[in-house]
Amino acid sequence: MGNLIGYLGPPGTFTEEAARRYGNSRTFLLRPYPTIDGVFAAVAKKEIDQGVVPVENSLEGSVNLTLDLLSGNTDVKIKGELLCRIKHFLLARPGQNPVKIKEVYSHPQALAQCRFYLDKLFPEASRISMSSTAEAAALVAQSEGKAVIASRRAARLYGLKILQANIQDEPFNITRFFLLALEDAPRTGDDKTSLLIGLHDKPGSLFSALGIFAGYNLNLTKIESRPVRGELGKYIFFLDIEGHREDKKVAHALKEMEEKALFLKVLGSYPHADTRI
Length: 277
Hints:
Elements: E1 4-8, H1 14-24, E2 29-33, H2 36-44, E3 50-57, E4 61-62, H3 64-72, E5 77-85, E6 89-92, E7 103-106, H4 108-113, H5 115-121, E8 126-129, H6 133-140, E9 146-150, H7 152-158, E10 161-165, E11 174-181, E12 191-198, H8 205-215, E13 220-227, E14 235-242, H9 248-260, E15 263-271
């Protein structure tokens, strides 16, 4: 097994937290990358053995860039999924007067997950999006009149003071991460499979496709559409089904789907995430 995991950095992001949880029980080293694209590219070029990227949040939905990269990358597979409970903290430089905060920085998803809190307590403050919560924390550590929404670990790493804890609008705030590799995971008996399908543009095509899974008594746990780039009104579909691609029922369903769909791409089969979070 490889021993180098890449993640969306810099250190202090929630993606690093997910990678640390995964790697703690194994002999892994972590390497940060500034973008999700960079993690995908590093896996594809074998710079790292595995990569961790966010894919979905229980409040704000899917991370569209991750889905787009999965659809366009021919080499990278989903090898696992990780679930992380997200607790957001409002951080600022020590001595910063909260009344004088004029700008709040963070990743767009974090800002969205704390929208009502910001509306109530900082209605006049500008909300500025950055590529990661940790990058935002590093910037705020150098500036007066600014705050950041980030993790408790980011406060320790960048010398920031916690102004308020658990500021997310909903207490049940879970982010799902994908573990990426050049191969997916072997069958465990408690698996799921992620798919990408394109369908013919005709009435009933989606209904017919979903009926295949019903016919094999396979549980469909997620379906999401994404527009085809440059083609208005055309969509591809991301699906998660229960079971491993090597299971007999799943294999038969995929073969039948391949015959009916415009195209079918198996993004990976992997064990269910540990839900004890």
